[in-house]
Structure formats: C-alpha cells, structure tokens
Amino acid sequence: MIRSIASAKHRNASLFVAYGILGAGPFVGAVAGLPYFPPVLFAAFRIDVGAVLLLSLLVVRGGYWYPKTRKDVVGVLVTGVLTLGGNIALVFMGQQYITSATGSVIYSLAPLITAAFAFFLLPVERLDRLGGVGVVLGFIGAGIVPNPDVSNLLTATNRGVVLVFLSATSFGVGNVITRRVDPDLPSLTLTTWGLVVAAGFVHSVSLLRGETVAQVEWTVQALVALLAVGVLATAVLYRVHFELLSEIGATRTNLAYYAHPVSTAVAGSLLLGEQVTITTVTGLVVIFAGFVCIEWERFRTSISNIRHEQI
Questions:
Q1: pTM for the complete prediction?
Q2: Separation of alpha carbons 307 and 301, rounded Å
Q3: Count of domains in the chain?
Q4: Within 10 Å of residue 311's Cβ, how many Cβ atoms?
C-alpha cells in the first residue's frame, strides 16, 4: 500500500515536471517555425497534427469518445472556436513580434483571466477581495513585461503582447462558457473534438487572410518546428495536462503555468539565442503573486491535505 502511494506520487511528480517542460513547446516552436510559415496557417497545421493523433487515441480507447448530446456539441463548438482555435491562432500571430519567454509570461495570465470571467458567468465561483487583488496584480504584471514606451504604444512588441493577451482571453472565455454549458464528454474527448473544430475554423481564418501553402518554405527546420508544436506541444502536452488534472486537481496543475515561462526562457536561450530581460522576470513574479491570491484558500487546503498525508 505504502509502495503504491509512493509510486503514484513519483509518477505525478514526473508528469508535473514533464508538463512544465512541454509548456515551452508552443512558444519556442512558434518562434522557430514562423520564419517558414504564415502565422495562422502554421497554427492550423499545429492543430491538424494534434487532432489526428488525439483522435486516433480516442478511437483506440473507445468508450465515450464522441459527442452524444446537445450540450456535448455546444461544448465542442465553444472549445474549438474560443478555447483552442482563437487561442492558438492569436498566440502564433503574436509570437511574430516578441520572444518566446515574453509570450509565455503573458499567457500565464490565463488562469487569472479565467477566474475573472468566472466571477461574472459562474456565480458559484465568485472572487473574494483577495481574489480581486490577485486579478489586479496579474494585469499589473502583464503591463510590466513589455516595458511599454508611453510615447509610442504602437510598437511591434506591444502588438505581440496584445495578441498573446487576447489569446489568453479567448482561452479564458471559452473555458468559462464551456464550464457553464457543462457537457457530459470527458475532458480529453472534449478537447480532441475541439481540435477538430478548431482545425476547420483556423484554416478558414488563414484563407481569409490570404495565406496559402505556396508561401511555406519546406525546410528541415520548418518540419522540426511543426512536429514540435503538433506532436509534443499539442498531442502529448494535452494528454499530460488531463492526466494531471485527474490526479492532482486543477489548482496544482495550474501551478505549471508558472513553470512554463521558466522552461521557455531556458529553451529560448539555448535554441533561439533569446535574451530574458529583468522586466520579463519581474512581470512573471507579479502575475504569479496574483495567481496565489486568487487560489489562496485552495492552496491552504492543498497544503493541509499534504501535511495530513505525510502524517
């Protein structure tokens, strides 16, 4: 029994570390591949690869692997258009202008933005005063990261930050609406079919922008970047994410959002030669403080449970 508990803890710790490292993939992979792909088409290709792999997994596993009810269908559509489609497309558009680390730090606002929208759309998840302080801290941190020049707010860096912020907002809104719809589909199944919808949505946006496959430079670097964002940063990342959710819960899993910028900074420095600025680090610390404020009660409960388990 003790060995079984220790083994489960070791496995969860390994999954958490893997999730923290894999979280660098969407940002580093986007920056690495964008010189070779139009941004939205690159996002669509990433979704294609992830959708095919996860859908194959669902078919093999069987069970509740496809939408069956009206709530399921609505949940899949919202997930496909907002939580995944708009989210991923906006990240790739934004990463044209900023470093991977900056994008990852701004995206770490996602749990805070989700909590803010949940305040209005999910009455059972009202924020208290400390949670309100947390949301404010998050936005302050996001403002610190680009170190904006107030005399010239229309810089490329600011444009990239705004696009990634809108990406996190799309994720947050979609996540809250989906929770309100409350589909019966298992989370991984919902996300997989959401990717299928997202593929069609993002390819349509790409076409409307005038992007074509002829604009792609099919180099070895382009293929490596595509495989990285499609396989590792989508199929494997989402699989690990939902495994962690079921094992350690949402609060502890969301802590990895703040490991992602660290792994992204390291990978961006080693693979892309990017420099991490003090403002980026400061912004991440402030955003993380905001997250702790919002989740304070859950943190206290989790710490209490951990101590109880150790006793």
A1: 0.85
A2: 10
A3: 1
A4: 5
